[in-house]
Amino acid sequence: MDGDATDGSSLDIAVVGAGIIGVITALGLLRAGHKVTVYEKADDYFEVGAAMSFTGVARECMERLNPCILEALQRVGEANRHPMNRYWDGFNPVSMDAAQSEESLLFEQSARELDYTGCLRSVYLREMAKSLPDGVVKFGMSLESYSEVAEGVELQFANNSTAQADAVIACDGIHSKARRLLLGDDSPASRPSFTHKVAYRAIIPIADSIAALGHDKANNQCAHMGPNAHALFFPVAQWTLSNVFIFLHDPKPWPDPHKMTLETKKSEVTSALSEWGPSIRELVRRMPEQVFKWAIFDMADHPADRYARGRVCLAGDAAHASSPFHGAGACMGVEDALVLVSVLEVALSMSKLSDLGKAEAVGAALQAYSTVRLERSQWLVQSSREMGDIYEWRYPPTGSDPAKIKAEIESRSRNLWDFDVGRMLAEAKMECEGRLKLGG
Ligand SMILES: Cc1cc2nc3c(=O)[nH]c(=O)nc-3n(C[C@H](O)[C@H](O)[C@H](O)COP(=O)(O)OP(=O)(O)OC[C@H]3O[C@@H](n4cnc5c(N)ncnc54)[C@H](O)[C@@H]3O)c2cc1C
Ligand SMILES: *[C@@H]1O[C@H](CO)[C@@H](O)[C@H](O)[C@H]1NC(C)=O
Ligand SMILES: *[C@@H]1O[C@H](CO)[C@@H](O)[C@H](O)[C@H]1NC(C)=O
Predict the structure, then answer these.
(1) Pairing relation of β-strands 290-298 and 229-236?
(2) Which of 17, 301, 307, 350 is 20 to 30 A from 188 via CA?
(3) Membrane-spanning residues where (predicted)?
(4) Which residues of 105-126 are buried (b: 16+ CB within 10 A; e: fewer)?
(5) Whose C-alpha lies nearest to ligand 2, atom 3?
(6) Are residues 88 and 222 in the same domain?
(7) What pTM value is reported for the model?
(8) Shared domain check, 170 and 217
(9) What range does the domain containing 429 cover?
(10) Is residue 412 in a domain?
(11) Domain presence at residue 403
């Protein structure tokens, strides 16, 4: 047997990255009784003000991982006030009246069926982190490299310190260093690529949003569609502010993949939407002159062919970074976390029953995780890209036909929501046991 320093009833696990998925994974592992250390590059929790929402499936996974994850979401999350998620025509209406009224409604879906809970990422991250015991997260630790040794995996950090663990779960985000190490620097999947969509984001007083959109739309989340662009608005901060996202299709290459955000002039948006309806034009007029522009990158062009090698694996955006058009990128990471906790439990109990080494058991567990998660998470990345085109009337099968768009969005969304978590875990367990029997 290889080095069993502990009593063998738990594992010592290193999580790389204290983003949403790293923290959720750590909370799940701690509840399962493992020893966990999270290594985070930044000096504090990374602040991205973006809003996010979680599906019913993701919330079920949270509950199973550790109820405190879901409780934190319930404390900071907000459900939409309106019972429907509504999709509007932002382009065709000619009068302000038509733009603000039901006349410009393309279609709607029950919000209950969508079953999303929204929150601000940074607020949720801090709320969850309160449940982590002191000392679990080590800040200022940027992973540089790792190597597998007999006793486990040795991690090397940028400040030359090292650490050891039985398994490494890397949740270091879209520009993951661990992905480059695991897949090799020459693998095309080691770097994300530009989706040819850019997002402009601003926060404006809700009064400005009401002036442009009317009371009904401004007080609920609403999506506007049109040619080569789409817009998402939703109230934040207890209905005092409005979060504005304008997405534009951008056929040009993005100049610098290392710098994905920049401050820019609003005139780019004004000219791109100059032929849109009066409501959207008025909203843009009320945005600040300087706006925040965000290049959207993902892994759709070059998906990873595996999420694990040896005793190291990738989870969350590190494994399958997605564009935000399904609003479910993080949900995939939550599902990853639950599968990981479950396969590590199977591996540990099997290694206790036999003289199987810990290294073998951990390796089989992480391989099982990779096998079970690849297809679904990569479908999301692909479908999310297409959703961006569907919203922007660029997807040939649906064009600008609201009935076809509605049917397409519904069938894709079903794949996300109507998902049997119990069955995924049963498959993961079977896959893991199969590998351990084969190996041992
Ligand atoms: C505009 C937008 C809207 C979105 N909306 C939604 C939504 O509504 N619903 C949804 O489910 N998802 C949404 N997403 C996706 C979601 O934000 C991501 O999937 C999620 O944040 C990924 O979490 P993560 O923990 O995997 O990665 P990250 O949040 O990127 O965290 C990675 C962490 O690792 C750290 N790190 C990086 N490198 C190293 C290193 N070498 N060593 C140590 N630490 C390191 C980073 O500092 C960071 O703290 C959206 C994304 C965008 C861009
Ligand atoms: C880490 O070690 C390398 C090589 O010994 C050295 O060049 C570098 O300055 C060290 N970095 C820090 C932060 O100590
Ligand atoms: C590296 O940084 C961490 C976190 O700040 C610190 O605990 C550790 O002592 C540092 N190691 C070295 C060798 O400087």
Answers:
(1) unpaired
(2) 17
(3) 13-32
(4) ebbeeebeebbbbbbbbbbbbb
(5) 160
(6) yes
(7) 0.94
(8) no
(9) 12-76+118-191+304-392+417-437
(10) no
(11) no
